[in-house]
Amino acid sequence: MKNILILAALSAVILTGCGNISPPFKAEQTTVTTAAPTVSAAASSEAESTVDEEQVKYDTFIAEFFDSNICFSDTSALVTEAMKGCSFETQTDSSNGVQNISLKGKNGGGMIDVLCIDLSQSDLDHDMEYILENFGDYYFGQTSAQMSGITEDDFVSIYRMTSSVVSKCKYQRYGSVQKSDGMATQFGYTETYAVLSENKLTVVSGAFLSSDMMERQSFSQVMGQFRECVGG
After folding, report:
1. Are 62 and 140 in contact (CB under 8 A)?
2. CB 76: neighbour CB atoms within 10 A?
3. Whether the predicted model's global pTM rises above the 0.85 cut
4. Closest Cα partner for 177 from 131, 143, 227, 226?
């Protein structure tokens, strides 16, 4: 699992750049028309360069994170406690320190990843807030992408929060989905919740998609149970 995530993060660093280059033209009566396109192209190029630099910085951090001296702690007790009373059919698979829970309802399904990473021996040169924020965004992106056919435009609400209390940091990001093709409507919910305390990063990240709004509500309640068990 660790090696797969490292490769995924590293591959994201290889970026491609492109721009719209207009063919040369001749101004017959005035040169004023050439000024605006030149300025616009320069501004656009600068903006794209800034975005690329931020993406490279982010991808580099993710690669460094998984390549540092980290280890995974057992989360089976956490999963057992949080899943008490769950109304969905579930199947849990544990691999490389990550508990992956598949959930199935009558009209939809989803998944939840649960992991706890021990950073006590890590040589990462970043403060806790930076690690929490960037890793949280990374995992939210990985999780929300698992809702097939759903794009950012389909989110009807989205929320992102980070906070720090003394030595404890908390991250939460979630979004609700409602998408209709004129004949049927899909309801979705995705959330990543993480707490970094005493050099241990605990992450719960899930996504669910259904044609039944009540199933989406039930899934969000399951995520709420996990938040209570993780604490923070």
Report:
1. no
2. 11
3. no
4. 143
